[in-house]
């Protein structure tokens, strides 16, 4: 149909619905679903008038429980490759659930990527502390934000500055896996490589970070919003310990 006059027409006229009616009739005539008594129960044709009313949404709400309307839906679903209307509805529910779950996972994985990019941006602003960069990614009252603020504040007070010339400092995030998947909580594991060079104030003292580690992110959904609540980073505060 996509290569026919129907698929190439933006606005349908009466003739288009006549053609569709014939196509449906031919398909249903050979459908194994409509063998035996099923054919006589629902029929194997849909008039072009009914199709036009259906696609132009000219049915009223009280019509939706009408037996003829339900039989029309049955035939359309069979034409689309389903056993009946109930089969279509069940398939739609499963598809919607899987789709929503996939979207939810994509959102939380994106939070991890965005968070790491924001951390790098935070370092680039040192010794000015800009914790507001995390407002859209980390809950304000979370233990994670409190710890990160303390770590970062100390580095800024010590005048740490990130060296980015010639891509000297960089990072990479890979292999994000969902460990726990619940409606309002997800735990993600990420492999991260951080290669950073900091210089300290006027002294120019250098501090290197060259680490591959596994981070665990605890992401929650509060007030219909996904953000980071906490994380486990085995190397958190490593720079703060370099006096």
Structural topology:
Layout: H1 14-29, H2 37-42, H3 48-55, H4 67-79, H5 85-125, H6 143-157, E1 160-162, E2 170-182, E3 185-200, E4 205-222, E5 225-232
Helix pairs in contact: 1-3, 4-5
Descriptive terms for the model:
2 domains; alpha+beta; elongated; 243 residues; 6 helices
**What value does the average pLDDT take?**
81
The protein's oligomeric status is single chain
Largest sheet: 5 strands, antiparallel
* CATH-level-2 architecture of the largest domain: Roll
- General shape: elongated
Q: Over the alpha carbons, how many angstroms does the gyration radius reach?
A: 30 Å
Q: Report the end-to-end length measured between terminal Cα atoms.
A: 72 Å
* CATH-derived topology of the largest domain: Nuclear Transport Factor 2, Chain: A
Low-confidence stretches: none
Q: How many helix segments?
A: 6
> Which percent bin holds the helix content?
40-55%
Report strand %: 15-25%
The chain-level structural class is alpha+beta
Order of helices and strands: HHHHHHEEEEE
CATH class of the largest domain: Alpha Beta
For the secondary structure, the number of strands is 5
Return the domain count: 2
